From TrEMBL:
Domain of life: Eukaryota
Protein name: non-specific serine/threonine protein kinase
Reactions catalysed, as given in the entry: L-seryl-[protein] + ATP = O-phospho-L-seryl-[protein] + ADP + H(+); L-threonyl-[protein] + ATP = O-phospho-L-threonyl-[protein] + ADP + H(+)
PROSITE patterns: PROTEIN_KINASE_DOM, PROTEIN_KINASE_ST
InterPro entries in alphabetical order: Kinase-like_dom_sf, Prot_kinase_dom, Ser/Thr_kinase_AS
Alphabetical list of PANTHER family matching this protein: FLIPPASE KINASE 1-RELATED (PTHR45637)
Segments forming domain Protein kinase: 44-384
């Protein structure tokens, strides 16, 4: 990689207090926080190219000096090329989104480096590669039901968080689902994402089957709206929805008690929803085989596209192919809009998995599962029976990457079998 090695100063650093999930358990985070004020490109060894994308290339880099062993994925973007191709907006959006994220299934942005020529994003390196590569290595080129349930569950939780933060991902596919060293997933590549953080209205929904009652949260003076005391220890940054519940959940539940016929008090469980249902975009973005019908037709799209791509994602993991692929991109797009998909007779796939995929791949986005109630509805589907959503991080992954003792071991393992990780 030929880049200038001088005048690389850190553009952005993060206080550990703003990234609670990235601190104590990550030695590389602690190292970066101690070094961040004096870092330059000379402090990193570029080991190998991991892959290339539309707006940049990703390299495996290692911090030099006494901190050897701290590996990172460095996304390197040529500023002149971004401007000439009118891609600087996409690069800026990805940077803004990465700065917002703090979730175990999403990337940690350690820092950014900038010069007149280059822009770098330094994020977590995932030695397990991506799910596309992992699937290709399987004997039958597909995952079993348990593995699909595991990976899909973690993707659902990641998308739920993104939507809660007002972000529509728009680029879910196996190539963008990386496997961390512990076997859990990390979504990557946010340059196609839509950031609409002011359009998310948190809601509590009574769980009453198919006819939920909505309790809207807003900032109006309506006396029926839940109150927020500015002196409360709860701090409400935009879209950090669970804090609403922690402040007044118990009091609200007491108000919602209902008397049954026998005079006993019953409580209808409440579920939290935060979907950017008002967000709209006319952009034609995504990977052809994963595009939702509303994107192809150009009628405008919103949050429901992520749940469509979840259906395609599940289908590909289970069958090893995508459902609408044609002879070329034009046929693929035609199939997405006009053709009903079918399930192959082989391999055998559980009916519950087929049912979930069918509800996700509804061409009308307003009728698609997740369009209105988001991950809340999807998580209740029988396919996920037995999933402990609160303890996903404690679930044993179906595949744990090889534990390399050194950077040299890692590079040697893949020299003869080059893998595009990103």
């Amino acid at each position: 990689m030929e880049v200038e090695t001088n005048m690389y100063n850190v553009h952005t650093s993060f206080s550990s207090s703003t990234k609670p999930h990235a601190t104590s358990s990550d030695p590389c985070w602690n190292v970066m926080q101690s070094e961040v004020s004096s870092l330059s490109l000379d402090d990193f060894c570029f080991i190998r190219k991991l892959g290339s994308g539309d707006i940049g290339s990703v390299y495996l880099v290692e911090l030099k000096g006494n901190n050897k062993g701290c590996l990172f994925a460095a996304k390197v973007m040529d500023k002149e090329e971004l401007i000439s191709r009118s891609k600087e907006g996409r690069a800026g959006t990805e940077r803004e989104i990465l700065e917002m994220l703090d979730h175990p299934f999403l990337p940690t942005l350690y820092t950014t480096l900038d010069t007149d020529k280059w822009s770098l994003l330094l994020t977590e390196f995932c030695p397990g590669g991506d799910l596309h590569v992992l699937r290709q290595r399987l004997p039958e080129k597909r995952f079993d039901e348990a593995a699909v349930r595991f990976y899909t569950s973690e993707v659902v939780v990641a998308l739920e968080y993104l939507h809660m933060m007002g972000i529509i991902y728009r680029d879910l596919k196996p190539e963008n689902v990386l496997v961390r060293s512990d076997g859990h997933i990390m979504l990557t590549d946010f340059d196609l994402s839509l950031k609409c953080d002011d359009l998310v209205m948190p809601q509590l929904v009574h769980d009453e089957g198919t006819s939920p009652n909505y309790i809207h949260y807003n900032n109006s003076n309506d006396h029926n709206s839940p109150s927020y005391n500015s002196s409360s220890p709860c701090i409400l940054p935009n879209c950090i929805v669970p804090l609403y519940v922690s402040c007044w959940y118990s009091k609200h539940m007491r108000r919602q008690r209902r008397r049954g016929r026998g005079g006993t008090s019953t409580e209808r469980p409440l579920r939290l929803i935060a979907e950017p249902i008002e967000a709209r975009s006319m952009s034609f973005v995504g990977t052809h085989e994963y595009l939702a019908p509303e994107i192809v037709s150009g009628e405008g799209h919103g949050n429901a596209v992520d749940w469509w791509t979840l259906g395609i994602f599940m289908y590909e993991l289970l069958y090893g192919v995508t459902p609408f692929r044609g002879l070329d991109n034009e046929f693929t797009l035609s199939n997405i809009v006009a053709r009903a998909f079918e399930f192959p007779k082989e391999p055998l796939v559980p009916n519950m998995a087929k049912d979930l995929i069918t509800q996700l791949l509804v061409k009308d986005p307003t009728m698609r599962m997740g369009a209105m109630m988001g991950a809340t509805t999807i998580k209740q589907h029988p396919f996920f029976d037995g999933v402990n959503w609160a303890l996903l991080r404690c679930t044993t992954p179906p595949h744990i990457p090889t534990n390399f003792n050194s950077t040299r071991d890692f590079v040697s393992a893949y020299d003869d079998d080059y893998v595009d990780y990103y």
